[in-house]
Amino acid sequence: MPQSESVPRDDDSEIVRVSHDIAGRLRTRGVTVSDDESPDDIVRMLEGVEAFERAVQSRGGDLMVDEPPVRGAVQPDDPDFLLPKRADDESASLYLERLEAATRAVRGHRPG
Fold first, then answer.
1. How far is residue 30 from each of residues 46, 69, 84, measured CA to CA in Å?
2. pTM of this structure
3. Is 66:52 a contact under the CB 8 Å cutoff?
4. End-to-end CA distance of the chain, in Å?
């Protein structure tokens, strides 16, 4: 007997749980995540942030030095290594575009 569209599937609750976990990880990195983000957008943002962080590390950046605390300011070794902040009204897709551009810039970065 096929499942009704109105009956939640077991994997739906797992998707919600994992999405909340990933959103929490993004928030600890200072990325704004709203409660109405799709699970796909949340995963794509995490992947984008991790790609940015890998690019920074590949260029000798230290994430502990270059990333400010969630509620604070920092003087990074290199401002180009700061994770781009997401505006409160910025869509996930626009943030991802900016994040990808920042990642490309870091990959082309020459130490100063």
1. 12, 8, 9
2. 0.78
3. no
4. 65
Which single residue is written with the structure tokens 């919600």? 16
Average pLDDT (38-44) is 96
Q: What region does 91 belong to: left with phi over 0, alpha with psi -120 to 50, or beta?
A: beta
Q: Which amino acid is at 101?
A: A
Q: Give whole-number Cα distances, 112 to 16, 56, 61, in Å.
A: 43, 14, 12
Choose among 57, 59, 53, 58: nearest CA to 111.
59
For residues 22 and 106, give the distance between their C-alpha atoms in angstroms, rounded to a whole number. 24
Q: Where are the beta strands (DSSP E) in 1-112?
A: none
Looking at residue 46, its amino acid is L
> Which helix (H) or strand (E) is 37 found in, with range?
none
